[in-house]
Amino acid sequence: MTKELKIKSVAVIGGGPAGLAVANALSQEPNLPFDNVDLFERSGSFGGLWNYNKNKVDNEKNFFSPMYNHLETNITKYMMAYNNFPLPNSCDMFPKRQEILKYIQNYSNSINKRNNQLQFHLNSNVISIIKDRRLNKWFVKYQNLKNNQVAIKNYDAIVIANGHYNKPFIPRVLGLEDWKFYDPKSVIHSKGFNDSIDFKDKKVLIIGNSASGIDISTQLSTTAKSIYLSVKKNAENDIINQNKFIKCISQVKKYDYLNNRSVITIDNKKVESIDTIIFCTGYLYDFPFLKSYVDKVSNDGLKYLEPLITDGKMVHRLYKHMFYIYDPTLSFVALPKNIIPMSFSESQAAIISRVLSGRLKLPTESQMIQEDNQLIQQKGVGKLYHDLKFPLDLNYCKALQRIIDEQGLNSGFQAERWDDQRYKLRLHSSKIKKKRFGELIEYVGKLRENNQPFKLMRKETRYYYPNCRASKL
């Protein structure tokens, strides 16, 4: 086992669902092991990803998330909740973004600050985080966005919870850079999408059939003149094909702005007169404040075996997707994709809080590297490394809980346990969403007939949910 970490001060970067879960877990560690825990959030309120800003311009004081005007969750409210902190009964089965944001903020108010041991710093943008190995301290440089003052504080440990929806990924394809040169405003990422009304009577090409690609194309069905959705060859299109206003095409191999704003697909089909291109192609991992651990050579000239990030598709050398193996005083929360954000973050937070307090010991560095190598052999190096699509997310959280149970560390913060009932809720959540999507297609058709832009459907629907009473959508 590794030597015990002697942690007295912790900085948590990010005030979204993950960062708040960590703050809550640290505040509940028995015997008050930490002298101070500071949480930094660059926005003026908690919520992270769920903080909506219709001003889709990034600058030093304005940050916007991928939230768009009309958005609801992809999973039911039974899955979205923190442990012992249910969403209000008044929430829709698939809550609106406003309901989730209010819920997260209510959760932040419920956290026990332990006589100011825990401090929240809103409007605080972290500029840099650097490790001084001589002092064995992390130095966090941050700016108060209210008064522009810059300050530096030092900590024994850092927990990164800034999310992974900040840096859009747009694939490099022949002709795309020329297109952006001639008409830069006609090419956007889904992060910049806000409302279907902005695309009225436009011919729109959407790249990618992820959750955002399907949702945005559906919303545009009410206002756009025509919609083309570019999907991979083996993509499952049964949901998309229900929408008669969307035409699926294969992957684009060439963009040709000067040839009537056209694109050519890999099966040599041509689409012309495109007004707007929306890339729903995901995001890259990015820690702009952590350059010394991202670059191959740190600021003090010491080389690391591997940087944290190379191409942005994964974060390297992490133990169980959390602890940086070469320096476990640096940890991450909610990096994996296709997870249930609140409960998953709590499962990781329960482990991190116990490790940082010294109650739970990590394996040796060589043992952690060996386990990471085994995971790489299974999943490869790249975007699939952090993919924990159901039931992988469930199995992961159960494994973390077993570590706590087997070592008798049940005092302190507790995450939601994944029992058989919760498994059924998770399993049926996607089925219910699929049923709702079928109803949504009919709904957007009526909006289009009435020349109305998209707004969220509040249609009452009844369905079976295991061991839950009949519910209304």
Query: Under the CATH scheme, which class of the largest domain?
Result: Alpha Beta
- Write the element-wise H/E pattern from the N-terminal end onward: EHEHHEEEEEEHEEHEEEEEEEHEEEHHHH
Total strands? 20
Note the beta-strand portion: 15-25%
Number of helices: 10
Tell me the helix content: 25-40%
Overall geometry comes to globular
Measure the end-to-end span. 50 Å
> What name is given to the CATH topology of the largest domain?
FAD/NAD(P)-binding domain
CATH architecture of the largest domain: 3-Layer(bba) Sandwich
Taking all residues together, what is the mean pLDDT?
A: 91
Largest sheet: 5 strands, parallel
Structure class? alpha/beta
Overall radius of gyration: 23 Å
- Give the oligomeric state: single chain
Low-confidence spans: pLDDT under 50, at least 5 residues? Answer: 469-473
Query: In order across it, which strands form the biggest sheet?
Result: 3-2-1-7-20
InterPro entries: FAD/NAD-bd_sf (IPR036188), Flavin_mOase (IPR000960), Flavin_mOase-like (IPR020946), FMO-like (IPR050346)
Family: Belongs to the FMO family.
Protein name: FAD/NAD(P)-binding domain-containing protein
GO molecular function, one term: NADP binding
Q: What do these coordinates show?
A:
With 473 residues, the chain is α/β, with parallel strands linked by helices. It folds into 2 domains: 9-166 and 287-418, FAD/NAD(P)-binding domain (3-Layer(bba) Sandwich), CATH 3.50.50; 168-283, FAD/NAD(P)-binding domain. It contains 10 helices and 20 strands. The chain has helices at residues 17-27, 77-80, 97-110, 176-182, 211-220, 291-294, 341-357, 365-379, 392-406, 420-449, and strands at 9-13, 36-40, 118-121, 124-132, 137-144, 150-155, 157-160, 167-168, 187-189, 203-207, 226-230, 246-249, 252-256, 262-265, 270-271, 276-279, 283-284, 318-319, 323-324, 330-332. The strands form 6 sheets. It has a 5-stranded parallel beta sheet with strand order 3-2-1-7-20, with helices on one face. A 5-stranded parallel beta sheet has the order 9-16-10-11-12, with helices on one face. A 3-stranded antiparallel beta sheet has the order 4-5-6. A hairpin with a 5-residue loop joins β13 (252-256) and β14. α1 (17-27) packs parallel to α7 (341-357) and α7 packs parallel to α9. The longest helix has 30 residues, at 420-449. The radius of gyration is 23 Å and the shape is globular. It starts with 8 loop residues before the first strand and ends in a 24-residue tail after the last helix.
